[in-house]
Design brief:
Shape: globular
Number of strands: 5
Distance between the termini: 65 Å
CATH architecture of the largest domain: 2-Layer Sandwich
Number of domains: 2
CATH class of the largest domain: Alpha Beta
Order of helices and strands: HHEEHEEHEHHHH
CATH topology of the largest domain: Double Stranded RNA Binding Domain
Strand order of the largest sheet: 3-4-5
Radius of gyration: 22 Å
Number of helices: 8
Length: 237
């Protein structure tokens, strides 16, 4: 094929791609996903994340989650997370102000809207759902729900009275958040007057207190004191 014909073919293929406001846009985006990036026809958040920059011809410059509500016995172990995606459209004809975009998605998860096998991980589920909603909103997908937003086997209200010790989900969440913020968990608990000789003996309520404090720092509503700086990976030992 000559170079001239090849260029013509490329131009014709590009002209077939619908714009984001066309009715065919949603089908076009879904076609970019592989079969293992769909569950019963619904796109997975991982899949939407992979094709996001391809579909919009953009560059992601920020993708962050904020925990608005931490799970506790008082709120039915409900977690609320907001995920924000910031990106720049790769179009030289637009000025910088038009190129920059920011979209958010929120999710609220508790035992009543989550599959029972994941109900002990409401923060993780809420974060995934919030990101999926932010991706869908930015992509302007019509009548599409991310696979992780659907729950098939919801368990009846579990007995909340048996929650007394810190959970593995709380430990993992504290570890991820403190590492991201470069905060010493030991020093943070000391500042909150929480006895931490053995992390597994900490109460559920104390763990919620730690998570709330980390969330405040993540949302930058409070400045991180200098004596809390310095993440230590051995804090769980």
């Amino acid at each position: 094929m000559s170079k001239e014909k090849e260029t013509k073919v490329v131009k014709e293929e590009k002209s077939k791609i619908p714009s984001i406001n066309d009715l065919e846009w949603t089908d076009h985006v879904l076609e970019l996903l592989s079969d293992d990036e769909k569950i019963n026809g619904n796109p997975t958040t991982d899949g939407l994340r992979r094709i996001f920059e391809i579909a919009l011809n953009c560059t992601v410059i920020g993708s962050e989650s904020s925990v608005i509500q931490s799970p506790s016995p008082d709120n039915e172990k409900r977690a609320t997370v907001v995920h924000c995606i910031s990106f720049v459209i790769n179009n030289e004809s637009q000025d910088d102000a038009i190129k920059y975009r920011s979209v958010s998605g929120a999710a609220d998860v508790y035992w009543g809207n989550c599959d029972k096998i994941y109900r002990n991980h409401p923060v993780a589920v809420a974060e995934t759902r919030a990101e999926g909603r932010a991706l869908r909103r930015a992509l302007k997908l019509r009548k599409v729900v991310a696979a992780e937003e659907l729950a098939k086997e919801i368990e009846d209200d579990p007995d909340r009275g048996n929650v007394s010790k810190i959970s593995s989900n709380q430990i993992n969440f504290i570890d991820v958040m403190s590492k991201r913020l470069n905060i010493s968990v030991v020093e943070l608990m000391n500042s909150l007057a929480i006895v931490n000789d053995n992390i597994h003996n900490i109460s559920h309520d104390d763990a919620v207190t730690v998570i709330k404090e980390l969330s405040k720092h993540q949302q930058k509503t409070t400045e991180i004191p200098q004596d809390l700086i310095g993440y230590q990976p051995t804090w769980k030992e």
